[in-house]
Amino acid sequence: MALEAAIRPETAAFLVEPIQGEAGIVVPPVGYLRAVREICSRHNILMIADEVQTGLGRTGKLLACDHEAVKPDAPILGKALGGGLLPIPMFLARADVMAVFQPGDHGSTFGGNPLACAVARTALEILERDQLAQRAEELGSYLLARLGELRHPAIRAVRGRGLLIGLDLWPQWVSARSFCEELMRCGVLSKETHQSVVRLAPPLTITRAQVDQALGAIEAVLDTITSPQPSPTPVRGDALPA
Ligand SMILES: Cc1ncc(COP(=O)(O)O)c(C=O)c1O
Questions:
Q1: Which pLDDT tens digits describe the chain residue by residue (242 residues)?
Q2: Pocket test residue of 20, 52, 56, 197 for ligand 1, highest count of atoms within 8 A of CB
Q3: Using CA atoms, how far apart are residues 170 and 187, in angstroms rounded to an integer?
Q4: Are 216 and 143 a contacting pair, CB within 8 Å?
Q5: Has this prediction a pTM greater than 0.90?
Q6: CA of 151 to the centre of ligand 1 (A)
């Protein structure tokens, strides 16, 4: 694995997203996280899992690392932790890791803000009470399967886990940005990552009927795309050397 080759004597940690969000919902092969865990332990470096997008139920487990029963030394959380209300990120680690920090090493004006912490505690309680991870697993599997059944030449791939799904589109047919804008006009909010991937990350409280509504909107937008876009006219200087 490239990770092992990159480790130097001064390497302290490997920071990894269990599923890359901004990079286009890139799901690693089964066993990847377990291999990372093993390499980090063998070289005595910390495995830090950035679960800001994947954490807190979104992929169908509390943490995405749970899918491989892997325990990172330090998960990073955010986004959902604030229950969609207040911004609060969090770095969690064992006592011996946290003990490296001495008072004054690290400052943050709003770090540990009491109101945000109270909101986060309630968000975690609701996550458990309403079994939102299980809901993400069920509705996400359904959404992924239904998207996988769509047959349209503009679709390059569909991938994801739980309610974190990427609809990868051929840029010759449509840009992900314009696809998201069309979806917005149909009442469905999504966000493109890179130029070709429509990221679907609905609230974990979404209902089956709302998932069906979103699928209807996606099909309606796909129906409007009937041919590849003509390539932009080359301008002088664009031509490749013969
Ligand atoms: C994977 C990932 N890590 C970290 C961050 C940064 O989180 P915050 O905006 O809470 O600082 C983001 C924000 O989008 C993210 O997607």
A1: 899 999 999 999 999 999 999 999 999 999 999 999 999 999 999 999 999 999 999 999 999 999 999 999 999 999 999 998 899 999 999 999 999 999 899 888 888 899 999 999 999 999 999 999 999 999 999 999 999 999 999 999 999 999 999 999 999 999 999 999 999 999 999 999 989 999 999 999 999 999 999 999 999 999 999 999 877 655 555 555 54
A2: 52
A3: 23
A4: no
A5: yes
A6: 33
Instruction: Give 13's strand partners.
Output: 46
As a CATH number, domain 132-223 is: 3.90.1150.10
Residues of the chain with CATH 3.40.640.10: 2-99+112-129
Q: Is the CB of 78 under 6 A from ligand 1?
A: yes
What is the fold of 2-99+112-129? Answer: Aspartate Aminotransferase; domain 2 (3.40.640)
CB 18 within 8 A of CB 28: yes
**Full DSSP string of 126-142:** HHHHTTHHHHHHHHHHH
- For ligand 1, atom 15, which residue shows the shortest CA distance? 52
Distance 22 CA to ligand 1 centre (A): 9
